[in-house]
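Protocol step 4 of 5: obtain the predicted structure for the target chain.
Materials: sequence only (see below). No template structures provided, no constraints applied. The aim of this step is simply to have a reference model before the mutagenesis design in step 5. Sequence pasted as it appears in the construct record:
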Amino acid sequence: MSLTPREKSRRKAKIIKELIEELDAIRAFRLFNTSRALRYISELRLEGDLWREVQIVLKTIALWPTQDKSFPRIKRADSIADILFMASFAGMIGSLILMLLNLELFLAYIFLLSTLVLMNLSYILKFYVSVKIRNIYLSRRSELEGYDGLLKKAVDNLLFRLRGELKKAGIGLSEVDFKLYNGDYAGLVVEEEKKGVYKLKFK
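Step 4 output (structure tokens):
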């Protein structure tokens, strides 16, 4: 069943709003995974010099961890964490089967305890990986700051597009609010600022 023009505009408006939030978070050093932003740009079929440049920047940012000398060690830790999680999951299923069948209860409890240890080790390694990746990005903060103007321009462009889609969808501008890490976008007014997060509305 095909969508009506109004439904299409509602869906497009939702994606545009989410892309605004993604780019704003990247600009504010709160998000470093650029894959979703790149996917949204592709879905919206955004073209022109601005969006080509934005895509180049997002792909460049995504490659930063692989360019760090510690990346092989981080990748290895991430792989070990995945293996430990799968082993703990399999062990948990095995121990539950033994318990349900009332077989080797002592062994089942040992299995269960072991799986909990493995799972915790997996979480610790995942936390280590996330901290190391974040530190890599933060070590290149000055480079990311160099893209600030471009990312702001991209968000301003998206806000203009969003206005048009909301109008097509029959949604009033007053019905839409934003929670962003920056409050300096054209066409938006800050209503509230709390702990570094701005609540904004269309002017």
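Step 4 remarks: The chain has seven helices and three strands. The chain has a mean pLDDT of 90.
Proceed to step 5.
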